[in-house]
Every structure is written in structure tokens, then in C-alpha cells.
Amino acid sequence: MQQIMIIEDDPAIRDELTLLLENEGYHPLPIVDFTNIAEQAAENRPDLILLDIGLPKQDGFSLCAGLRRSVNVPIIFVTSRDSSLDEIRALSLGGDDYITKPYNIPVLLARIKAALRRNGRNSETEIIETNEMRLNLAKGTISYGTKTILLTRNELQIMACLMSRPCEIISRTELIETLWDNQIYIDDNTLSVNVTRLRSKLEELGLREIIKTRRGMGYQL
Ligand code: CA
Question: Which among 53, 73, 84, 139 is least surrounded, fewest beta carbons within 10 Å?
């Protein structure tokens, strides 16, 4: 049974999510102690995390960074904050998706399912090598020269698309479909945010301007 950790301090919403996930056949892991959340996640090894932003000890934004270091699973922000700045911030910090409260239950469940499915695909052992870069889909890393860095799930998917078809232009629509399965829920800007973050990580490896933007068409290695 897939385990979903619920990090939400409002007891009514927490209980509602717990019941909802149980009814859908998941094993919910509601958090009640808001200290050492990253440790609790590492210990329980959930398959996915639902993360609120307004929390008692530490907000969801800073928690997300800590969680990213301890577990490599999809993180979906579920929050009543609905500004696009918050959304961009959540995705830049390594969140995989962002849903605003009051959430629409079928949409929330569809997104959980999609995130779990993408994660399942990513755990297959596979290595893609192109232009002296080495992408390890199982470990979620990219290496170049002697350096290796961790990528988030979305960054990994983008890189996998580009590296498996080097020199080809990959359209934004194709990337959005690959990353989010159902593009109707996704704002076009979300892809740009992910690509920007990926580019700055690649620069850390010494790979400058490796992903080219082809205006009106898409991206290309
Ligand atoms: Ca809250």
C-alpha cells in the first residue's frame, strides 16, 4: 500500500485528508508532532508528501528544502495561499505540484495519482549518456566530469527528454505532457520555472547554456 504523509496543522483538514486517502486505498501518515518532520519522513519512508505552507514551527517552504534532503519522493503543496509568487516559490524549492485550498477532491486525487505514477517511472534503473553528461534516473542525479548533483523529479524528466533526443527540438507541450500527464491543470509558466532552476543547477556542474530556448518551438540540447 502506498503511504502518503500529510503535513497539515489544521485538524479538520488533516482528518478529512486522512479519511479521503484511506478511502482511496492509500495508507495515510498524518503528522501531529511538527518538530523533526524531515526525520519523521526519513523514518516512515512515505511514497508521497502533502505539505501545507502555514505550519506552527517552520513554514512549508523551508520544510520542503529539508524534506528534499532526506527523501526523494513527490511533494505536493496543499495551501490556502494562492498567489502565483507562492506557487513559483514552492516549485523552485523542489515541490512537484501545488494545489490551493479549498481543493477540488477529484483534482487532488488525480494529481496524487499522477505524481505517484511519474515517480514509479523514475525509479526504473536507467542511465542516459549524452555529450559527456550522465543522467541516472534511479538515483535522480546528473554527472559531468567529476561532479554529480541531485535533480528533482521534474528536472530529471526534462533532462531525460532532452538527453534521449539530443539536438532535437522538444516542444513545450510535449514536456508539459510528460511532466504533468494532464496539461489542462498546468500553467505554462510552471515549465519555465523548472527549466530555469535546472539551468542554474547545470551551471553548478560547469554546463553553461547547455539547454537552448528555441523561441515559439521549445527546448533543445
Ligand atoms: Ca496551516
Answer: 84
